[in-house]
Here is the input.
Amino acid sequence: MQHKSLPISRRNFLALSGAGIAALVASGCTANLQQMVAMEPYIHPPEETLPGEDVWFASTCRMCPAGCGIIVRTSNGRARKIEGNPAHPLNQGGLCARGQAGLQQLYHPDRLQQIQIRNGERGQGQWETASWNEVIDQITSIIQNNSPERIAFLTGLLPGYQAGIVGRFLDGLDAPDAIIYDTQTALDGRVVMAAASQALFGENALPVFDIGRADVVFGFGANFLETWLSPVSYNRAYGDMRSQFGTRGTFVAFEPRMSMTAANADRWVPVEPGMEGAVALALGRIIVDENMVHDGIPPEYETLYDDVDVAAIAGASGIEVEELTRLARIFADGHHPIALPGNTLVGYSNSLDAVKAVEVLNFVVGHTGEHGAMMLTPPAPARDFRVSPPNSFDDVLSLINRMTNGEVDTLFILGANPIYELPQAANFVAGLEQVENIITFATLPDETTALSDIVLPIHTYLETWGFEFNNPSTDKTIVSAQQPVVRPLYDTRDPADVLLALADQLGEDVKRRLPWPNLVNYIQTRLVSLQLEDGNITAPDSLDTFWAVWLQQGGWWSQESNWQVPTIQQETPLSLEVPDPVFDGNSDDFPFYLMPVPSVTFGDGRHAALPWLQETPDPMTTVSWDTWVELSPMTADQLALRNDDVVTVQTPTGTLQAVVYITPAIHPNVAAIPIGQGHTALGRWAQNRGANVLQILSPQTASNTGQLAWIGTRVQLVKTEERRQLPLMENPEGIENEREKSLLRSE
Here is the structure.
């Protein structure tokens, strides 16, 4: 690839844009699409650059869907350190462990460095390579030889710029819309949360909870300090809640397993799995019956809980009526109380009704439309930044059914690893066998690339351009900037540029829907709509100036608060019945509830390849590098299990093996297993390590949302003869000795 010099000196170029625009790289896949703007190689360093001099670039983290603002320190053309961007309203300088580990994704030794085209049987690992021009021609021919309705595109929750181009590409082909689904999206409960907003408020928007200015927070399965939606933003808000008003706000967590978030609460209330929403109903009934609200119960809610049986809920949840009354008093006595439904809550078959029951608590106490309340994320600032919402798991099952029936000839996969992420019983692999062409975009070889026909190596987020409409955000509307901080290390491309190149080859309707010559030009045309908006950048007449400042500051954000105040639709009678959750497996054969636990480091498992994250101890157990099953002392005694025993975990659809970890911080009827390990690919640090709990889940869905009930499977535990010591930072001997002494005393 030939690079031509910049028509402007590097000194003037940096002066124009600050540190934000210096990392310009090639954009485009084919010769006629190239926009060649390149960083100067440090074999011949710029005259004003000193060896070891640091340059910082503002960009956007893509290690989870939150899209925090980052600044990346580079030296001599290499990225050295990632930190949070203090100017970015979402994270205000904070950054989680995953964000810090982004460098290891960039420099991973097992990264895909060139195109791979299968030349043997699928799954045999026999590949040949090709140039980008050759593979673009090959994929163009495949598309032209397919009927549009027999082309499918499966993506994860993509950055906004990629999602927009994928949508336009499929629209130009007249092919079905992309199926947008990955496990992280399901664990966050985005589909369920948006469905609850639609049902209650008539708005298909994600809720935002202003916990930073609340004085009482009730979290129902809300692990907002770990993985849920925007954890860095919520971490900062939680710190504000604990330090405002000269007092320490009160936090109560309702969930079957003590998460790291619950461990930071004033009170952890262990609830029978699936009963969290019913507990919210009981609290509401008590508040209404005893008129606990400062200004009285709003009239429209006085009869809301007439059919709620508090005593029955107390019996089913394991929380006594007296305790429920005390908790209701704590919530109602707050001046700025807030109840929030979280990611554990959305894992059940009754998730939609449970979320509605929790959110309505905020209206019962009359705390809406002011600080410290529940709000709705504002819509995108312009049509150019709107993207399709995620799909349900039912939509994924429909795609698998089409594949199995031979109705899909070509399948594109981007931003997802379905062979790892989907339950084995969903039969995705069987569906793939009926697909003629499987084309996968990836940065690392994973379980899905192993069964693909064409694997396209793509840039990491540190090597490419982009933008992200942050959803959910803070009270500001944010369009975060992404720019390359280094030149691409290998022969990789951004997926958006690949699709632009395909559009150029295909012509006709596809080219009309994607007329831009390269990704940079596409992004710049999207930004035009922001120039006239009231925000942190003032450049209504100059796109070049707007572009430079946008990159330098890390994005555009509104000046005023744009949160939407939710209003319950008066014409729709509230239905707050929360049915009992449904679990696959009868209680006699499968006596325990299986609770998959989203990993604070791996998320849904996509970052298990990074050794920094592998060696980061789990915050509740201090375990690393392995898979364990958390059991209560009562359950362990019942099954004659000790720490480090290996057990077979069996569900109605599969089995795995895990090491026992005994903890009092879990409900006796629950077996909890972390998500993220058990890869058969994904590089040397992830492969063949631990077990994948996602594979043994039953693929059942909630009837009213179509979402996977990922906490909807029962298990049995069978002791094996094997023992394996878990890598722990703590010494469990003292705990074990005390437990044995307690057992002796009880005898």
Remarks:
- The chain has four domains: 10-109+463-493+515-557, 116-185+386-457, 192-376, 592-746.
- The chain is about 30% helix and 15% strand.
- The mean pLDDT is 89.
- The domain at 192-376 is CATH 3.40.228.10 (Dimethylsulfoxide Reductase; domain 2).
